[in-house]
Amino acid sequence: MSKSASISRTPPADVRRTLRSEVGFGCPKCGSPHLEYHHFDPPWAELNHHNSNGMIALCASHHAAADSGAFTQEQLRTLKRSRYATVQSSFEWRRKHTVFVCGGNFAYRCNSMLRVRGIDIVYFEVDENGYDTLSLNIYDTCMNKIFEMRKNDWITRTNIDDLESPPSARTLLLKSSIHRVDIRIEFKDRSMLDNAEQNTAARFGISSEENVVFCYFNGDIPAPLPVKFNARNINFRGMTLEGNYISHSGVGVHIG
Ligand SMILES: [Zn+2]
User: Which of 79, 146, 159, 167 is the least buried, fewest Cβ under 10 Å from its Cβ?
Assistant: First the structure.
């Protein structure tokens, strides 16, 4: 077996990040942030490699077009230098029953998990079809909105270090180290839930027959007040919120 035949087709994390970054975290043909990685110089079939100079990040449909030969190598090199000003998409995962897990605290049938000085930062809305959705207002250190999600539809505009949301559109990572923003969103269907999550659903009165989704929000936000959503707790102003089950309430935490 040749050395090149033994490498995984999935590029290493640093190569993936380089390729996402050079196209501004969106497919250079359509702006979709749900990116795959195409080998074109040389093509993967000729040589198994992860040389970023001969690779490009594309959405699944433009990746398929590239695989079928739709673009010349010269066109792909030009696309590697193309960027969209805004990157936006939408999460599906809409259910009548969603348990939102924010920094290890659980919310079900609540309006908001975190409101700071009158601004909802992490909040929940029911869409026109009666499905639970996630909404977010994420500000950078200058109080510019770096990321906004409204009823699962999201957009990001300003300079960021990284944004990764694979084609399954089940997870999203967003980072801006200069602005100390680092957020992670993950959806899990009932089939993916462990025993503790199944028990949490039952504790909220969601029967085992019902479709349920768990939506995780974790990370660090710098403004309007620095708040950390860790795996186990929420931290702000030296205070810790841990293991709360909040249901049928207005606002989980309101910081004045
Ligand atoms: Zn595309």
Answer: 159
